[in-house]
Known about the structure:
With 791 residues, the first copy, chain A, is α/β, with parallel strands linked by helices. The first copy, chain A, is 36% helix and 13% strand.
Amino acid sequence: MTEMVTNEVPASNAYLEKMNKFWRAANYLSACQLYLLDNPLLKKPLTPDMIKKKIVGHWGTVPAQNFVFVHMNRLIKLYDLDLILLSGPGHGGNFFIANDYLDGSYSEIYPNISQDEAGMQKLFKQFSFPGGVPSHCAPETPGSIHEGGELGYSIAHACGAIFDNPDLIAATVVGDGEAETGPLATSWQCNKFINPITDGVVLPILNLNGYKIANPTIFGRMSHQELVDFFHGCGWEPYFVEGDDPMTMHRLMADTMDTVIARIKEIQAHARQQNDATRPVWPMVILRTPKGWTGPKVVDGKRIEGNFLAHQVPIAMDKPEHLQLLSDWLHSYHAEELFDETGKLLPELRALAPEGDRRIGMNPHANGGILYRELRLPDFRDYAFDIGNHGEKDSQDTQNLGPYIRDIFKLNDDAKNFRIFSPDENNSNRFQAVFDVENRDWNVQATAEDDHLSPSGRVMDSMLSEHMCEGWLEGYLLTGRHGFFDTYEAFSRIVDSMAAQHAKWLKVCNQLPWRHSIASLNLMMCSTVWQQDHNGFTHQDPGFMDHMANKNADVVRIFLPPDTNCLLATMDTCLRTQNFVNVIIASKHPRPQWLSMEEAVKHCTQGIGIWDWASNDQGQDPDIVFACAGETPTLEALAAVSILRKELPELKIRFINVVDLFKLLPQTEHPHGLTDVEYDMLFTKDKPVIFNFHGYPKLVHELTYHRHNNRLMHVCGYREEGTITTPFDVRVQNNVDRFHLVRSALKRLPNLGNRGAYLFQKMNDKLVEHKQYIHDKGVDLPEVSQWKWED
Amino acid sequence: MTEMVTNEVPASNAYLEKMNKFWRAANYLSACQLYLLDNPLLKKPLTPDMIKKKIVGHWGTVPAQNFVFVHMNRLIKLYDLDLILLSGPGHGGNFFIANDYLDGSYSEIYPNISQDEAGMQKLFKQFSFPGGVPSHCAPETPGSIHEGGELGYSIAHACGAIFDNPDLIAATVVGDGEAETGPLATSWQCNKFINPITDGVVLPILNLNGYKIANPTIFGRMSHQELVDFFHGCGWEPYFVEGDDPMTMHRLMADTMDTVIARIKEIQAHARQQNDATRPVWPMVILRTPKGWTGPKVVDGKRIEGNFLAHQVPIAMDKPEHLQLLSDWLHSYHAEELFDETGKLLPELRALAPEGDRRIGMNPHANGGILYRELRLPDFRDYAFDIGNHGEKDSQDTQNLGPYIRDIFKLNDDAKNFRIFSPDENNSNRFQAVFDVENRDWNVQATAEDDHLSPSGRVMDSMLSEHMCEGWLEGYLLTGRHGFFDTYEAFSRIVDSMAAQHAKWLKVCNQLPWRHSIASLNLMMCSTVWQQDHNGFTHQDPGFMDHMANKNADVVRIFLPPDTNCLLATMDTCLRTQNFVNVIIASKHPRPQWLSMEEAVKHCTQGIGIWDWASNDQGQDPDIVFACAGETPTLEALAAVSILRKELPELKIRFINVVDLFKLLPQTEHPHGLTDVEYDMLFTKDKPVIFNFHGYPKLVHELTYHRHNNRLMHVCGYREEGTITTPFDVRVQNNVDRFHLVRSALKRLPNLGNRGAYLFQKMNDKLVEHKQYIHDKGVDLPEVSQWKWED
Lengths: 791, 791
């Protein structure tokens, strides 16, 4: 029977004494994870064979995070809070594991790590050990939605988590190293996007332990007044908890947190009772503690606790006398006072932690797939663009997608589980239709002329930061909701690393049966390399596809819908999937529309296919195959085919369009890949292929490397040529235009004789004519800009 | 004869009136650049044929930047300042061009854009026009060292520019949109790294025009007190200049700037006379002006000036009646009062701008190659590691490079033109030797225990921000100095986009004869995918090579030195080059050392070569070729070869190592590429090749796509498998270990019969033994960890 504990405000000294013991237990488990192979309760004297051969992990950040954890436990119990904890400092994941173990979460999820001596031994051994668990917070860590590898995204993730979760608190430890990164620095502004009525609370706890790996930290050395000013300027009210004496600090922290929670409740009560969403000044905590707190004071004559030398393992096992130091340190926690003989935490201490799903490790928001509910989707066919004949009408793909997105907002208005994210580009990317029913999120001062701003908006395009868009969306998805991020293609590279880390997170989650699947990360590239009339060279980079193509095949998908109806079908698919990173290359400019909805559905379902209406090889072997992926390359490939078919009607041409890029890969390398037989039936084994590609040509070469006819494939694509010029001229500069394509085809069709040579010369003339025309007029040749496919 | 102008403090009203005229001239030229094909002085009524068919560019940010420019001109003349201007807002490059034209810089550099009506007509037509110049500040813009495409790096660039330039002021307009990006947000901390004695001044001018593309800005809507607090917290003293009445604003700006310059001079005088480098509180300016100031007030019933609708072109030419609006607007500047009949700026206005190199467009710091001086380099051969026999001794490559870097600091101590950059990783990357002679840069509070911190340090590793490291280095290089950025390979992806933009900048500079060459951007990846014992999966990403491989071949280089002596030779080469982005993959962990200095010099000069001592095909055709690139793959390839040569001595093996990755490309695709004949002489046309690669295998497939034996090449490399484990186990997980390599070779040597099958089985057994051993012990098999090449 668990002893009842007194749990009151202010906390009693007796309660704080018990919390200190719990903290000692967490520190003990954290330290032992670094070192011990065996003898987990130190019942025997420590001998070298009980120590890991290679000791890798971090200590410096650990004790303060254990301190936060035990105080969060108190708050959860005392106020019955729905609270998750994000660990920004990254390394020191042993702290989170230790606390998960103490409250039983860890053993429930990993029964082999049992609540006894044997389990504790395994807990210690597995940490940062081959076949074991990472040294930082990771997908393997119950309760974590934040990987502690790359730094800077904790507040963005936390903020994404609490959007539309009015009862959730995301306590977020921010390291003072992490605080120096760009993404974290701008994250402090996130309070301008939080609605105190409909969103939850981000509670930042900036831990100033003063040091990074080998340097002091900027925030650790700013003056008290500078800290106060900085956070006031960012719109937060900082509460300081500073010191190193444990019991003094427990008192200070408990009292401060009581004040902070009272302030949060006061803010929420006012906002919700008065229906006043005005941005409040939210509280935050600045926790200044020694780095490596409670760890070894001095080793080899050097100060460790309170110094940067505490960052990783505080005692290297490179000298025999260090064994005693280690033993003394570990014994200083007096595990025998905290665990019973069998290795079980004493019930009076266990009672300090919450129960069931209130445990930080078991909170369903931190295993968001548990809360995942299907997004209600309208029938995308209802938004079909009536194309008339193939290529007869021009229209704008993303603009046509807008009403479909708008209606997703409508259909899920009750669930409030859908947001879209864009760095000030919603209109530029042509999603204006969403404003029929939804606003932009904005909780700063507003004016009458502002366009669709509201503290309740769920269109997240009011902050010019790709990092925040990506981080918010990740946090939103990780807690079981839905959305997408639309951005300029070139600037997707700003979040290369974030997206890669998310892909890695998903890959690991796929190997953890207890991690429930979440909605895919949908990244839509809307302002692409091919039309940058006034932005030019700096806005041209289609390499995000290359970047993602290197990631685990089970996780990544790349789609290049060539028109509106294909974009609709693709988005519908992407929004239904789970645990993928879907990259969608979409067009926003007026373009011919090729496929009816019926054709588009079939085409997108196959992912790759022959367009019969553009081909003339029906029933025969083609002389040449034209393939394409991406809307501009498709347009030019069709224009090239129309020239060839008109000028050389006897030529048999097959026209292939690729929507799902990984169809090109062998089946053995990607679940979507075609078998060689399937591939050869499309591309032939022995006919020349002209492949007009949206991105860098090398990517298609990579994907088709093992195919039979790879030597016969000529790939055109972006080759880093561009400046301010017309849409057609940038195609010409990169050889993806119709005239170059026809030339490329002719070079591979030597048997055409004079007729080929004549057409080749004609194409050269066209290229000269084009250059002269745009030089004089600044616009494209009418025969190009007004070109129509004739069915 | 130019009229003398009164230039006094405070500025006279007469002088401010003239400045206002100059500003009107700049605004006029900026607006006309957006619209006009002809009729530059509006001598005739405006007709549709005089208007560009497609009007693309930005207006919103322009007038305030013109305002800043004219006031900077005043300061330069009044105080004889050495001042450059960085334009953070990005778009609106027409403002910089307008001012360059007004002071004559533009015509000096581009004589066809002459100082007369004909030149003005060309000036207008070329802007954002095919074959013309980009719409944002760009390499083409005289005086700019900052591309206005991707936002967020202006302060970092400015700060890099003023390091070790004590007399330079980098005035930096920060847009309130840009201010929301992560990199810019953390840039405010840069004052902690500026030495008031030996560095110059970053003078931020935060322009609050209140709007981005379609949204208000966060900084634009923060309260006055929040702005004051924020910048006080960041360590700046903000001076506010707010309003919209031109003459009132000129008075306010001039007086404020006089105060700011006085404050800067006071800070510098104190620091330099007292030799007191203590971080001062530097002044900055907050300039609040209407977006699209002086532009059209209302168009189609919508407010334009002071609204987000002023962002791009304020009057679309989609309605006939807009022609009159445009005409009224352009006439409102009264060009006839500013330019003479021939189109030349009136001398009394021209006299407001500085002369010669003091002009912002002609300041040599903004064309840094002018100031570039060779770095003095020690003879790298003096730092040779004595390898004994091939592979006999272990050592750490980057640690061995340290003394060479240290001595670069020594040799250039007078020139003060060398810095190294790293996000808190200098020690982790093993460059401790530099601390013999140089300190870390740190100008915050310091303690006795801090390790080599000084306000005069030139080791820039005290801020944990890849963005700042990259931005600082770019600014340092762009102003004619030298350095490199060493970082964890995986986290180089954080600056993917920045490095790509720099590569694009260099590519364009190479086409501009007036842009003098600068030192290459050297990016060293020191903590690589292959040894992440306690960081694991999140720290594994070798894709920066793939990223750079897509950039212009004339600009990018990738080197994979396999040992210390090769790293020394490679660094020496990279530090001598100009206008490249050099990516260097370097090892920091203890590894066998393969090549003597003499061998290394030859090998690195060739970039690729056969290692005779590892091969046994001398004088004969090989049965198989082993190739490798990168230190870990080289180690495992050699180990595999040693197994094969021992077990199957009759097998003829050729061993090739690649240092310069682009040797693999055809000569036609990269200046370093081998001809097919050269390539075939190394790799053969018809023998199997096992290529063990540092990065993703696809990159080698890409590079060798067109080679004769591409189908016979089997590439092993990183395939996104990794977690906490031993160095050897992560190789096994990715199939780049010796046992997998031998198996791969045997699969391609079917004629070995039973002997091959026997060895294949033996390799399988080894892999099982390995797994069991690390599971039990947590370390690698002694036969692996203690393996030595036997010469």
